Amino acid sequence: MEPAKRAEELRALLNHHSNLYYNEDAPTISDQEYDALMRELKALEKAHPELIAPDSPTQKVGGSAKRTAGVLVAHRVPMLSMQDLFTEEEVNHFLEDCQEKLGEGITFLVETKIDGLSMALRYENGTLVTALTRGDGRNFGEDVTANAKVIDDVVLTLRHPVEYLELRGEVYMTNAAFEAVNEKQELLGKKTFANPRNCAAGTLRQLDAAVTRERHLSFFVFNIQDIRGKELATHQEAYDFLESCGVTVIQHRFVCKDRQEVWQAIQAIGEMRGSLPYDIDGAVIKVNNLALRQQLKDTAKNAGYQVAYKYPPERKETKLQTIELSVGRTGKITPTAIFEPVRLCGTTVSRCTLHNQDFITNLDIRLGSTLLIEKSGEVIPKCVGVVAEKQPPDSQVFQIPMVCPVCGSPAVREDTADIKCVNLNCPAQLERLIGHFVGRGAMDIKGFGVVYVHDLIKEGYLTDVADIFTLYHHREELIEKGIVGKEKNTDKLLGAIEKAKENPPDRLLTGLGIANVGRSAAQVLMNHFGTVDALAAASVEDMTAVDDIGPISAQCVYDYFRQPHNQKVLEKLRSAGVNMTQEIVAPVGGNLPLSGQTVVITGTLPGLSREEAAQLVQENGGKVTGSVSKKTSFLLAGENAGSKLDKANNLGIPVLSLEELLNRLGKSSAQ
Fold first, then answer.
1. Mean pLDDT across 450-454
2. Which of 84, 203, 268, 573 could pair with 578 as two cysteines, CB 3.0-4.6 Å apart?
3. From the DSSP assignment, how many helices (H) and strands (E) are in the chain?
């Protein structure tokens, strides 16, 4: 790949993952994977300086300042990041560079690195006046003073006040506090946090300080950013002074005079990882003499006087107890490993997916195997191997039975690695299929929750999706049994079902759960064929003649409509009065603003659902598809845009915000 194109691709990937880490508190790749991408980009820019851009991830701190938790506060001292190192050789190179520039007699401080959220505290005459997050690192951070004041480790008044003091530290959660928060989340039926850092970051940005107090955040200081009224010579001396002031500082630290002592300290900290009450992901090596630091030049994003040695991903052994098999909406049988609980990256894990039979076979996974588990992106536990010498004697590779674990029907292996249940009436498939059918992306039946779906199937009222539209026949029974509540709730749901009969049939087609047919494909097909009956009668060739419909999708639709069970379901839907005819509005004269343009929509749009955005595009002559390609005219992107945004940037496809699209259409955001 050409250097310029690869650099552009790397910048898009790094910006995407940096946003997930710093701003969304939801990383999806590990630090090691991120840093590998960063090193590749740095090497490219070093070899081709003309590729360096001011907004390149190599030139800036990864975060951005938000206005969600408070007002923005200007930084007085930059809150820079640190260069990450991964080998002893890289550490030695940093030490040698420092000694060459500063002299042989310098000392270094090596201390624990917790992956929390950076926060600066400003004291005036010994009183805390402002707390702010790192934000973009150079210009602005978020004001989180109210939340900082309820953190036990944050000192409000110094024992030995000075004229001005600005401290930088890390907000984090102990393992015990994190588990307590997640236990409460589960009791309340809310989503649990992925790891302590995500929880700490989200809690610090809370608008309600009472929630912050309740979650018991912790905090330690690792640097004096600025001080007036006190002279300090070394970082260790600064720690001693802060401790005398009542400030909580890093507990585990070592003063070292040469490379051997530095590496021994790094190893000592690494051995602590499993015994500390919080999780660490590295060790920080910094020049101890404060005055000498000025001679070490900062980069655009990294402080010059310190680096972070990052330990390899935490990996632990555990014994496989059993393998659970579950069945998804499409009939896919997914194996899940259940193993003895182990602690990784701040959470206790006891299960992970084994994907499919090929994965199990390739890793030689057997019942009783000793698995090697690590976390992907420090979020998702995964099995990366087995300990060969600990394999149970006389054991064999686990084989997924070729029968459905839910209904006992035969299972088949298709061209992919997936094994699927062939019974369309399988309860596991039915529950997920109906949940999909009534969901927002399909028939959008308001108030039809998953609990109702489960109970109605269990009680025998739903045997397929068409039965939804005859539930009114059982109104009295439903009220008497209280399956969906009393009379008011039952009538409300039945009313929503009745209204859904009027939905355009592209929603119906989406809801049927045909493999490889999502909302965009359903809209294209129904706009072309007009009625469900016409589509059901179409050949594969008829369907592939439609723009954006490939042979795989066409074959799936063709096969679906030729299954006797599905034909009966469609007849029941027709008899129940469900709309089967698409209203097609042809563009007048092809002169609409988006005539002939193909649009892809991604992310969360302000004040507009994905379906409403698609309707807006179609009303103005455009066509909405599900994937970005060279044929895409532009990408309509909202917040949390993911891989589609990356692909659009790589292909040079224009990216518009909702406001930019409305301006192009001559509308205002208020319309």
1. 88
2. 573
3. 23, 22
Are the CB atoms for 86 and 32 separated by under 8 Å? Answer: yes
Enumerate long-range contacts of 182-185, CB under 8 Å, 24 or more apart: 182/347
Write down the pLDDT at residue 69.
44
Residues 263 and 104 sit within 8 Å (Cβ to Cβ): no
Reading the block at residue 524, the tokens are 């294209």
What's the pLDDT tens digit per position in 295-353? 998 887 788 999 999 988 778 899 999 999 998 767 889 999 999 999 876 678 899 99
Backbone Cα Rg of the chain: 30
DSSP annotation string for 578-601: ---B------STT-STTTT-EEEE
Backbone angles phi, psi at 505, to 5 degrees: -65, -10
| Dist. CA 3–CA 380, nearest whole Å | 33
- Tell me how far apart the alpha carbons of residues 93 and 105 are, in angstroms, rounded to a whole number: 17
Please provide the average confidence, as pLDDT, over all residues in the chain: 86
Q: Report how far residue 139's alpha carbon sits from residue 632's, in angstroms, rounded to the nearest whole number.
A: 37
Is 458 an annotated catalytic residue? no
Looking at residue 366, its amino acid is: R
Token representation of residue 418: 């997936």
CA–CA gap between residue 243 and residue 265 (Å, rounded): 22
Cα–Cα distances in Å, from 276 out to 35, 173, 174, 273?
26, 12, 9, 6
pLDDT of residue 198: 82
CA dist 653 → 631, 633, 634, 656 (Å): 9, 7, 6, 10
- Residues 247-280 have pLDDT tens digits of 999 999 999 999 999 999 999 998 887 778 888 8
Query: Which residue would you say has higher pLDDT here, 386 or 413?
Result: 386
Distances (CA, A) of 85 to 133, 265, 266, 284: 25, 15, 12, 10
pLDDT of residue 62: 52
Give CA–CA dist 433/195, Å, rounded.
31
Catalytic residue among 42, 46, 113, 230: 113
Tokens of 152: 């036990």
143: its two tokens: 């004001």
Top pLDDT among 64 and 166 is at: 166
Candidates 651, 653, 587, 579; CA nearest to 617 is 587
Alpha helical stretches, state H, 103-221:
145-148, 175-187, 196-204, 209-214
391 exposure class (CB count in 10 Å sphere: 0-12, 13-18, 19+): middle
Q: In 120-145, which positions are buried (b, 16+ CB within 10 angstroms) versus exposed (e)?
A: bbbbeebebebbbbbbbbbebbbbbb
What pLDDT score was predicted for residue 47? 80
- Residues 6+ positions from 231 with CB-CB distance below 8 Å: none
**Pair type for strands 302-310 and 81-85:** parallel
* Of residues 308 and 552, more confidently modeled: 308
Alpha-carbon span 519 to 372, nearest angstrom: 40
- Look at 20-29, 214-223, 376-385, 399-408 and tell me which has the smallest mean pLDDT: 20-29
